Amino acid sequence: MEFAIVPPERVALPVAGSDARFPVRRVYCIGRNYAAHAIEMGHDPDREAPFFFQKNPDDLDVSGQFPYPPKSADVHYEAELAVMLGAGGTDIPVSAALECVYGYAAALDMTRRDLQGEMKKAGRPWEIGKAFSRSAPVGPVHPATEVGHPGAGAITLTVNGETRQEGDLNQMIWKVPEMIAYLSEYFELAAGDVILSGTPAGVGPVQRGDKLEVRIAGLAPLAVAVV
């Protein structure tokens, strides 16, 4: 095939213990998926229908550095479990959803909270606050064949060695199989899709020079420097 311009490089993430790379197709993010986080954001923690927004594939970043973005003075961390799909489809039943998962990784959903708030007040989309460049630092992908499917286990975030977020994967309002099944009712999911599964309570701002570390039981930690 002849392209009119040089095609951009395909986003691909390292796989732990392998030279293989996980190619990224789409990135879906669920909002307010831990009750305590819903409360701290001023919302009812009851099990309402899930909602999702998207980031761009090249927002995923494995460099270990997070450049503080322009046009914002209030950028927040959100520690999350990333779910990588190795298969997809439509109307996937909950009972079969985990068969679509290739693996998992520790990740961050960095958020320009001030810009997100402005968009919320105006009833506009959130992309300017969520889908900016390098807004999703991510660690190596661990195949489910090696780590299983973590339905429980500690998820923590520290800033400069101080614990700021602390929760358990079993506190998710919508579990991973349910997220996959729900998304597949509205989108045709496929291999290469990534789902960021929500964050526990304790989100807060970062400053240049901060050192962040996300730890999720069974996965390699994610260390990120704010630059």
From TrEMBL:
<keyword id="KW-0479">Metal-binding</keyword>
<feature type="domain" description="Fumarylacetoacetase-like C-terminal">
    <location>
        <begin position="27"/>
        <end position="226"/>
    </location>
</feature>
<dbReference type="GO" id="GO:0046872">
    <property type="term" value="F:metal ion binding"/>
</dbReference>
<keyword id="KW-0378">Hydrolase</keyword>
<dbReference type="InterPro" id="IPR011234">
    <property type="entry name" value="Fumarylacetoacetase-like_C"/>
</dbReference>
<dbReference type="InterPro" id="IPR036663">
    <property type="entry name" value="Fumarylacetoacetase_C_sf"/>
</dbReference>
<protein>
    <submittedName>
        <fullName>FAA hydrolase family protein</fullName>
    </submittedName>
</protein>
<dbReference type="GO" id="GO:0018773">
    <property type="term" value="F:acetylpyruvate hydrolase activity"/>
</dbReference>
<dbReference type="Pfam" id="PF01557">
    <property type="entry name" value="FAA_hydrolase"/>
</dbReference>
